[in-house]
Amino acid sequence: MSEDESPLQPGTERIMHAVVTGGAGFLGSHLVDSLLEDGFRVTVLDNYGSGREENLAHVESSRLTVQKHDVRDPFPEFKTVDVVYHMASRASPEDFTSHAVEIALTNSQGTKHALECARDHDARALIASTSEVYGNAGEHPQSETYNGNVNIRGPRAPYDESKRFSEALAVAYERKYEMDIRTARIFNTFGPRMDPNDGRVVPNFLTQALRGEDLTIYGDGSQTRSFCYVSDLIAGIRAIADAPAEVAAGDVFNVGNTEEISIQELTDVILDVVDTDSGMTYKPLPQDDPEVRRPDISKITSQFDWKPSISLRTGLKRTIPYFEQRLTDD
Ligand code: NAD
Ligand code: UDP
Fold first, then answer.
1. Which of 76, 250, 260, 299 minimizes the number of CB atoms within 10 Å of its CB?
2. Of 159, 173, 177, 218, which is the active-site residue?
3. For the NAD-dependent epimerase/dehydratase domain, which residue ranges apply (predicted)?
């Protein structure tokens, strides 16, 4: 899209400016693509902890600025900001222990700085929350009204409890400063630019299958997840962020795919879509690993007419070439 076609801040001649924290990560980089495609000027703030410069290396637009910045520190000064997307946070359960304090602070202090940036500029904010706020859910599927079952002192707490705090802080800012803040509770999402060494199940299984190694099933594989392809997820995030204030300000929406599958069944799909001799091996189930997970997406579907359109199988087929390339390059 040319500069002339970029969305303008109403009443001005200014192109809309989006700040995206975590924009060099998996989801953040796809969000950046979508915003640039729609003509926004975009500034990425990322510390490259789990993200990579290569995730944005394909971008040629002069409307993108990337700054190495840790969101635990106050944001740089900007002249104008129209929307802040707070996507920064490591999200792999393996990091919940190895990077516990960093994660807890990214979703507390980092959220504070994102909200302060939005407040300073009278901008809209979108906070990336997670299905992990529901913990080992006692309600299935999980709707936005379910308050969750989270272990405050468990190994996942630096992530799930800090995401809960992040949401609580957003609500506090909304009420105290009458800001326009929206929250997206993101369910398991996969696609190109996920780090093959990330430790989450789709990158692990794809990497193992492509290398002909055994797929590592944690526990007996009866636990379920519902996997969303990245393009669907980004469309959902944008639907929430772009909606008029009357229908979205101050609200929270689940975003994800409702196609629920056990981890054991996921191995069958992977072994079907990857040409491999891999078998399976069983490892202990991590503590507090949620037994079931499926989003109730009736709220986002009824309010914004959004629903996922890419099946797990199709999404995996679109993801495999990226993993093949990464395994060759690395
Ligand atoms: P990712 O690790 O690929 O991306 C996170 C990005 O944030 C990386 O680029 C990383 O370098 C950056 N980052 C982390 N801490 C930072 C800090 N302190 N300062 C600056 N940058 C920092 O993970 P992702 O899967 O793309 O997740 C993006 C967001 O979506 C996260 O907030 C995550 O909690 C949320 N989310 C993702 C999923 C999923 O399935 N992918 C599910 C639920 C929620
Ligand atoms: N898992 C697995 N093998 C792996 C990685 C993960 O069986 O190599 C399981 C994990 O225990 C969980 C599910 O797959 O039950 C999804 O894990 P992931 O880390 O992708 O995300 P989570 O939903 O736990 O945040």
1. 76
2. 159
3. 19-256
What CATH topology corresponds to 17-190+228-257+293-309?
Rossmann fold (3.40.50)
Q: What's the CA gap between 85 and 91, in Å, rounded? A: 16
Give SS3 for 196: coil
CA nearest 83: which of 175, 20, 12, 153?
Answer: 20
Q: 41: Cβ below 6 Å to ligand 2?
A: no
Active site residue 159: yes
The ranges assigned to domains in the chain are 17-190+228-257+293-309
Whether the Cβ atoms of residue 22 and residue 31 lie closer than 8 Å to each other: no
CA distance 199 to 203: 7
Model confidence pLDDT, tens digit, residues 48-67: 999 999 999 999 999 999 99
pLDDT, tens digit, 9 for 90 and up, residues 188-214: 999 999 999 999 999 999 999 999 999
Is 207's C-beta closer than 6 angstroms to any atom of ligand 2? no
CB atoms within 10 A of CB 301: 17
Ligand 2 test: best mutation among 134, 159, 263, most atoms within 8 Å of CB?
Answer: 263
- Residue 253 pairs in a beta bridge with 184
Peptide bond into 141 cis (omega under 30): yes
Q: Which of 76, 92, 250, 205 is nearest to 158 (CA)?
A: 92
Indicate the top mutation candidate among 20, 21, 27 to test ligand 1's pocket, ranked by most ligand atoms within 8 A of CB: 27
CA–CA separation, 255 vs 267, rounded Å? 24
Ligand 2 centroid–CA 200 distance in Å is 6
Nearest to 161 by CA among 126, 200, 128, 134: 134
State which ligand 1 atom lies nearest to the alpha carbon of 48.
11
